[in-house]
Amino acid sequence: MLKKEEINIRDPFVLLVEGKYYMTGTAGADAWTGGSYFPVYISDDLENWEGPVRAFVSPEGFWATDNFWAPEIHPYKGAYYMFASFHNPEKNRASQIMRAEKPEGPYEVWSSPITPDDWYSLDATFYVDEAGQPWTVFCHEWTQIGTGEICAVKLTDDLRGTVGEPITLFAASEAPWVTPNEEKLIAGKKCMVTDGPFLVKDEGGLTMFWSSFSNGNYAEGMAVSESGSVLGPWKQIAEPLFEKDGGHGMLFKTKEGKLMFSLHRPNLNPMERPCFFELKREDGRYKIV
After folding, report:
1. Exposure of 101 by Cβ count < 10 A (0-12 exposed, 13-18 middle, 19+ buried)?
2. pLDDT tens digits, residue range 130-147?
3. Contact predicate 211/182, CB 8 Å
4. What is the mean pLDDT of residues 54-81?
5. 30 — pLDDT class (breaks 50, 70, 90)
6. Which of 1, 105, 191, 269 is deepest in the core (most CB within 10 A)?
């Protein structure tokens, strides 16, 4: 049994299923130097965790060799789907979908990469709109285009592939709280990060949490779709939700129905730990309690 403070993961994602919490994320020790699997930890109380179970292990012949990043687990049509990002020095970083019968796996490769072959992409998340159309929302990475973008593309009903071309929702430069993370230019643009989008339906319509850098610190911000649609237009909340060197977060509900936000901090390998904060909605936006 491990305490939360003993678990070294980035991008912590929590799912509540039948009274148990399942937490996955980027394995901290392998975050930058390798990677071949995704862990899942299981808890009754968000403090004491069993595991890790190796929920997805790279199968023989799998295209990716490193940067096994940011897994998310989403229930959909009676199964569980893991969205995650991968890299190979001879290919571009891409996101892909795995499938399992149980939240802790084992997960098997389900789709081919769902982001464009000629893009550097990462941090795909999952969203089903009111019409039942599945989408993935992901980042077009700043390392390729300078100012990172958040994009969306429709998925097939079985999540085996995509439908149509990606649509850019917004760029990092549109958020007042975001500052450049490097002085150099890439593709003629300032280096501004987009990381970890996560979408939530609420009484205000549709909110997206996402991460970037603010005055040198990794931070978590929010945008609101003015139409209630994944296609926006997206209005950026001027102030970040969290700016104390933590981010790549997501929202979940506890057994008691509380809104809880999960992120990692600090943003320094191998010191990253999962952190949970209770949130409330006030004046049309989320705030830390």
Report:
1. exposed
2. 999 999 999 999 999 999
3. no
4. 97
5. confident
6. 105
pLDDT for 112: 97
Give the whole-angstrom CA distance, residue 9 versus residue 48: 15
Task: Give me the phi and psi of 240, to 5 degrees please.
Answer: -70, 155
Structure tokens that stand for 284 in this block: 């049309």
What is the SS3 assignment for the chain? CEEHHHCCEEEEEEEEECCEEEEEEEEHHHCCCCCCEEEEEEECCCCEEEEEEEEEECCCCCCCCEEEEEEEEEEECCEEEEEEEEECCCCCCEEEEEEECCCCCCCEECCCCCCCCCCCEEEEEEEECCCCCEEEEEEECHHHHCECEEEEEEECCCCCCEEEEEEEEEEHHHCCCCCCCEEEEECCEEEECCEEEEEEEECCEEEEEEEEEECCEEEEEEEEECCCCCCCCEEECCCCCECCCCEEEEEEECCCCCEEEEEEECCCCCCCEEEEEEEEEECCEEEEC
Above 90 in pLDDT, residue 225? Answer: yes
Tens-digit pLDDT profile for residues 115-124: 999 999 999 9
Q: What are phi and psi of 142, to 5 degrees?
A: -60, -30
Does the pLDDT of residue 90 top 80, yes or no?
yes
Peptide linkage before 270 cis (omega within 30 of 0): yes
Residue at 275: amino acid letter: C
Query: Could you identify the residue written with the tokens 């975001």?
Result: 178
Angle at 83 between CA 82 and CA 87, to 5 degrees: 120
20 token code pair: 């148990």
Confidence at residue 32, expressed as pLDDT on a 0 to 100 scale: 86
| Contact yes or no for 115/125 (Cβ under 8 A) | no
Task: State the Cα–Cα distance between residues 207 and 199, nearest whole angstrom.
Answer: 6
- CA 166 → CA 75, 113, 133, 138, distances in Å? 23, 13, 15, 9
